Amino acid sequence: MLIKKTVKYIIFLIGWVLSPFTWWNDSFVNIPLSYILANALYFIIPIPFGWIVIAAYWFTNILGLFIMWSSGKSIIISAKDKARATIFMVVFLFVYTIIMMFLHTKGYVLPITEYFKKHHNQIMGIK
């Protein structure tokens, strides 16, 4: 019984780390994870890389919420905190999406292979 409860708490913690309910998770977890996932999917899905990064980012946040819901069946925060967290999540998701779309159109969001090729060519003086 104790092991089952501990596993549920660990799964809930993983969901919480992926979810938008933490202010630090994007910088350290979701954005790097979405970039890695996008690099893996870039060669399989024939759409622009920036779009894959955005979709992967949304996926990691939604996955975190789903994991929290399925392991806890209730989020352990007050109704006031739920409303504030939901508003913050929606605003941040849209701001992040707009920033990523802008960076993608300027050519700053590249798959890792193209990034290294571009920088290698710049170092060698190749256009």
Overview of the molecule:
The protein is mainly alpha-helical. The chain has one domain (2-124). Helices cover 78% and strands 0% of the residues. α3 (49-72) runs antiparallel to α4. The model has no long low-confidence stretch (mean pLDDT 81).
What order do the SSEs take from the amino end to the carboxyl end, as H and E? HHHHH
Structural class: mainly alpha
Unreliable parts: none
Radius of gyration of CA atoms, rounded to a whole number:
18 Å
Q: What keyword list fits this structure?
A:
127 residues, mainly alpha, 5 helices, 78% helix, 0% strand, elongated
In short:
This protein has 127 residues and is mainly α. It has helices at residues 2-18, 25-42, 49-72, 79-105, 112-124.
Secondary structure layout:
Blueprint: H1 2-18, H2 25-42, H3 49-72, H4 79-105, H5 112-124
Helix pairs in contact: 1-3, 2-3, 3-4
